[in-house]
Amino acid sequence: AIERTFSMIKPDATKRNLTGAITKIFEENGLRVVASKRVWMARREAEAFYAEHKERPFFGELVDFMSSGPTIVQVLEGENAIAKNREIMGATNPEKADEGTIRKLFALSMGENSVHGSDAPETAAREIGFWFSETEIVG
Ligand code: CMP
């Protein structure tokens, strides 16, 4: 089925001017960018967005990093978009990511891993709603 998923191009990638290169990979794999904006998130926004991880040992590091520079938040649409995007991104740990995936190509570490993508339909709905209103999504 045609799905929507939420994606972020993280500060390590925007800093290295990889916004276009990463977006091109989404497009080449059949995903369409139906919403996109560049945001420099506040610490509070990063804490709220990643609230499910607040008990994790890396939470402070994650919030510091995500509020350290610009991020591109996007909604991607396509056949099986949620799983497709996870496949294109590769494993969270770039050392474990498959050849040709975004994280294998660009990620620097587990934290500075260039992209985020929703892991399930419920998460996608929440994450899209966190950053976008319905009128900002143009299919
Ligand atoms: P993301 O998909 O954005 O969801 C949570 C993020 O936490 C994850 O990608 C990683 O970038 C980050 N993360 C997960 N594990 C670690 C870790 N051990 N150290 C630092 N960051 C981590």
From TrEMBL:
Its EC number is 2.7.4.6. Residues 2-139 form the Nucleoside diphosphate kinase-like domain. It is an enzyme of class 2 (transferase). One of its GO terms (cellular component) is cytoplasm. InterPro entries: NDK-like_dom (IPR034907), NDK-like_dom_sf (IPR036850), Nucleoside_diP_kinase (IPR001564), Nucleoside_diP_kinase_AS (IPR023005). ATP binds at K10, F58, R86, T92, R103, N113. Belongs to the NDK family. PANTHER family: NUCLEOSIDE DIPHOSPHATE KINASE, NUCLEOSIDE DIPHOSPHATE KINASE DDB_G0292928-RELATED. Major role in the synthesis of nucleoside triphosphates other than ATP. The ATP gamma phosphate is transferred to the NDP beta phosphate via a ping-pong mechanism, using a phosphorylated active-site intermediate. HAMAP family: NDP_kinase. This is Nucleoside diphosphate kinase. It comes from Martelella mediterranea. The gene is ndk.
